[in-house]
Design goal:
Multidrug-efflux Transporter Regulator, Chain: A, Domain 2; mainly alpha; 6 helices; 65% helix
Length: 134
C-alpha cells in the first residue's frame, strides 16, 4: 500500500510514517521506480504497536528492541517481556512519586487554608513557609 493509504488507516500523517522509517522502526519498505514507497500490510500492525508503546511511555530506542526482528519477523519473547515488566516498574515508581507529590500539595493547601482568623495573607505565607523549614 502507498503511504497515503497507510496514513489514513493508521491515523498518522505521512511525515510521521517516514520519520519512523528513518528511525529504523519500519522495515521492508519497497521503493517503486517513480520513487514512491510501497508498504506491506504488516506495517499497519507495526504502526499500531508503535503508537500503543509510545502512549505507554516507551522511547523510540526502547521500541526498536520491542519490535519484531528484521531478519525473521519474529518478536524476541524474553526481551519483550523484560522490557514490558521494566516499563511497568517505571510506571509504578512514577505513580508513587506522583502520590507523594499530591500528598505534599494537599498538605500545603490544608496549611494555607488553616490561616488563623484575622491573619493577613502575607503573614500567612510566612507562617506556611516557616513550617517547611522545620
Amino acid at each position: 500500500m502507498k503511504i497515503g493509504e497507510l496514513a489514513q488507516l493508521s491515523g498518522l500523517n505521512a511525515s510521521r510514517i517516514r520519520f519512523y522509517e528513518a528511525q529504523g522502526l519500519i522495515h521492508q519498505v519497497e521503493r517503486l521506480a517513480n520513487g514512491y514507497r510501497r508498504y506491506p500490510p504488516q506495517v499497519l500492525q507495526t504502526l499500531k504497536i508503535i503508537q500503543c508503546a509510545q502512549q505507554a511511555g516507551f522511547t523510540l530506542d526502547e521500541l526498536k528492541r520491542l519490535l519484531p526482528d528484521t531478519a525473521t519477523g519474529e518478536f524476541k519473547h524474553d526481551e519483550l517481556l523484560a522490557s514490558l515488566e521494566r516499563k511497568v516498574g517505571q510506571i509504578e515508581a512514577m505513580q508513587l512519586h506522583l502520590a507523594q507529590s499530591k500528598g505534599q500539595l494537599l498538605g500545603l493547601i490544608e496549611n494555607i487554608q488553616a490561616r488563623p482568623d484575622g491573619m493577613a495573607c502575607d503573614a500567612n505565607a510566612e507562617r506556611v513557609l516557616a513550617s517547611f523549614q522545620h
